[in-house]
TrEMBL record:
Domain of life: Bacteria
ATP-binding among keywords: yes
Protein family membership: Belongs to the ABC transporter superfamily.
InterPro entries: AAA+_ATPase, ABC_transporter-like_ATP-bd, ABC_transporter-like_CS, Metal_Ion_Import_ABC, P-loop_NTPase
Signal peptide as annotated in the record: none
Protein name listed in UniProt: Metal ABC transporter ATP-binding protein
ABC transporter domain span: 8-233
Key words of the record: ATP-binding, Nucleotide-binding, Transport
Gene3D superfamilies on file: P-loop containing nucleotide triphosphate hydrolases
SMART domains: AAA
GO molecular function annotation: ATP binding; ATP hydrolysis activity
Length: 234
């Protein structure tokens, strides 16, 4: 279903925290309908790259061009980056995914509330909607954060380790559910490539530099498959 419409284009991107070079000369394109898995060793710079594409971090040099409405970019952060002591309940957390910079204090409509309730039911957390995020389990919070990332029907959806805390059954169903609920292009950071590989088209290895396999089959044929997955005969 690739139609070659570019959504985001990164050119010669460099980033460092203090003296430490984290990303060097990264260039990549994200195309509509072409799902990407970003893999690589711990601390390789995967989350940093995504945060740069989201505009949360300021690049040191290089270009990031957007061919997508920035309000149509969804994001699931790593759960550990989330302050679970923040006083917000599950319903408000999910509906807050509809808040844009330009409409911070807009009243949510009945339709917005219905969409929230539908997503809560879809993710089997409707009974928890009045609970504070500090009162639910890690997996329940992760489900709510995924629903939040999806609620705006994003054109592109960045997921940072979505499998964290999920039970095996839900982890297995996750990408089917995302496909069923949206037609977002997915860019997913994961250490579970063997589980998600049938949902992605391309594989990017990010370890300070980037190695791009536009066609995932080229990755599986390469020496990198041995290094990055346990069972590469998928
Ligand atoms: N706020 C920060 N200040 C300083 N260094 C940071 C900060 N955030 C991340 N780093 C460092 O930047 C490097 C890249 O981190 P990043 O989180 O992007 O890696 P990652 O590939 O997503 O790792 P993982 O697979 O472990 O989640 C790491 O060495 C990390 O220690």
């Amino acid at each position: 279903m690739q139609n070659n419409k570019k959504l985001i284009s990164v050119k010669n991107l460099n980033f460092n925290y203090g003296k430490d070079a984290i990303l060097s000369d990264i260039s990549l394109d994200i195309y509509k309908g072409k799902n990407v898995a970003i893999i690589g060793r711990n601390g390789g710079g995967k989350s940093t790259l995504v945060k740069l594409m989201l505009g949360f971090l300021k690049k040191k040099s290089g270009e990031i061009d957007y061919y997508v409405d920035k309000n149509k970019i969804g994001y699931l952060p790593q759960i550990r980056e989330f302050d679970t002591s923040f006083p917000i309940n599950i319903f408000d957390l999910v509906i807050s995914g509809l808040t844009k910079k330009s409409n911070l204090f807009k009243k949510f409509s009945a339709e917005d509330r219905k969409r929230t309730n539908d997503l809560l039911a879809e993710f089997e957390i409707e009974k928890l909607k009045d609970k504070l995020i500090s009162e639910v389990s890690g997996g329940q919070l992760q489900r709510a954060l995924i629903a939040r990332a999806l609620i705006s029907s994003p054109e592109i959806l960045f997921l940072d380790e979505p499998e964290s805390f999920l039970d095996k059954k839900f982890e297995f169903e996750l990408y089917e559910k995302i496909k069923q609920l949206s037609d977002s292009t997915i860019v997913v950071i994961s250490h579970e490539l063997d589980k998600l590989c049938c949902y992605v088209d391309s594989i990017f290895i990010v370890e300070e530099e980037i190695r791009i396999f536009e066609d995932k089959n080229e990755f599986f044929k390469s020496e990198f498959a041995h290094r990055h997955i346990h069972n590469h005969k998928i």
